[in-house]
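Customer escalation, tier 2.

The customer says the design service returned an amino acid string that "doesn't look like it belongs to this structure." They asked us to rerun it and document both sides in this ticket. The original structure tokens are below, unchanged.
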């Protein structure tokens, strides 16, 4: 892998920053706020930031870069798909529980629902995230989607995944700001009490975590290399149907490899096209 040392340094920084963010969210709710409970009180609201930062930010961030860990490149693509899908599913579950907590808290205290920009953008992000998860399973994990659909959807999958992730970080920043303005009365937020400083630092860390993940996920030379037997196109079939083999869709043995590997100019161009379309030749 090119720049292996730099990748490791960025990965270690992302893990550290993400981990410290989770710890800071716990320090915030336990040291400065009412702790955690599930009884309609402020303790129930506090699950909202803690689960969002743990699941929707940290775990989702790891899920996004999991294909890029070089020591996983020898693992099968299918296993990596399960890990990527599994981590994203855990993130989704934690996000839903965190939403239930805030809605229940609002209902228990007769606070109106869905009035703020934070809640609008947040709910939109959760809806698109569920859609992304559902389509990810349906198209890339289950063996039914035709290869040309996988090829067409992959760049959209990557783009929407990264956009949702960035939106989640922005929503978390809005939520943090709102909460500090609502909760800090005397001294007020504007007086910069220690809680405000701690939570402002948490916001900064979330931005740094997001930037590190987006950087790692957008370097073309750090993407998982195509499997040995993935870039195949039968010379007679220079169509999208030959691009994906290392998946639930098709398995080709090494013995078939020499038969299947493209040696025509048309097939070579087709391969380049697929690579450029999604920067990926395995889906
Ligand atoms: C409320 C989503 C992160 C603080 C809400 C509501 C939603 C939501 C849908 C509306 C609940 C209702 O109307 O009953 C999200 C999402 C987040 C996120 C998707 C992740 C990206 C955070 C964070 C905080 C936070 C990190 C920090 C404390 C609040 C507060 C409210 C709230 C104070 C109540 C006021 C309001 O409705 O805007 N959130 N939230 N949120 N959230 Fe978040
Ligand atoms: C790649 C996001 C769910 C299959 C990616 C990438 C992102 C992403 C950002 C680009 C990673 C990279 O360039 O290294 C998401 C999000 C999901 C989700 C946010 C959930 C909401 C799924 C599911 C599957 C899936 C359920 C089914 C297995 C894939 C595949 C790749 C990919 C096959 C290409 C990996 C490669 O470059 O070799 N996803 N994804 N995704 N995702 Fe997802």
């Amino acid at each position: 892998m090119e720049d292996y040392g730099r990748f490791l340094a960025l990965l270690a920084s992302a893990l550290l920053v993400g981990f410290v963010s989770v710890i800071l969210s716990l320090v915030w709710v336990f040291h400065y706020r009412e702790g955690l409970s599930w009884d309609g009180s402020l303790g129930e609201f506090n699950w909202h930031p803690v689960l969002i930062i743990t699941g929707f930010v940290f775990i989702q961030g790891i899920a996004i870069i999991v294909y890029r860990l070089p020591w996983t490149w020898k693992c099968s693509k299918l296993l990596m798909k399960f890990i990527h899908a599994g981590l994203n599913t855990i993130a989704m579950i934690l996000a839903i529980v965190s939403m239930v907590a805030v809605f229940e808290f609002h209902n228990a205290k007769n606070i109106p629902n869905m009035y703020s920009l934070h809640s609008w953008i947040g709910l939109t992000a959760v809806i698109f995230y569920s859609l992304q998860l559902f389509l990810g399973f349906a198209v890339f994990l289950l063996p039914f989607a035709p290869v040309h659909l996988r090829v067409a959807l992959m760049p959209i999958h990557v783009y929407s995944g990264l956009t949702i992730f960035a939106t989640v970080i922005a929503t978390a920043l809005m939520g943090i700001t709102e909460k500090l303005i609502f909760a800090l009365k005397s001294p007020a937020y504007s007086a910069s009490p220690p809680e405000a400083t701690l939570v402002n630092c948490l916001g900064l860390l979330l931005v740094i975590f997001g930037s590190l993940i987006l950087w790692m996920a957008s370097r073309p030379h750090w993407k998982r290399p195509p499997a040995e037997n993935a870039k195949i196109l039968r010379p007679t079939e220079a169509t999208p149907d030959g691009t994906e083999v290392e998946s639930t869709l098709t398995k080709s043995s090494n013995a078939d490899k020499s038969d299947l590997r493209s040696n025509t100019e048309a097939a070579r161009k087709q391969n380049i096209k697929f690579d450029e379309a999604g920067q990926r030749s395995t889906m």
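Tier 2 assessment: The sequence is consistent with the input. The first helix runs from residue 4 to 32. The chain has two domains: 4-226, 228-277. Sent an explanation to the customer and offered a walkthrough call.
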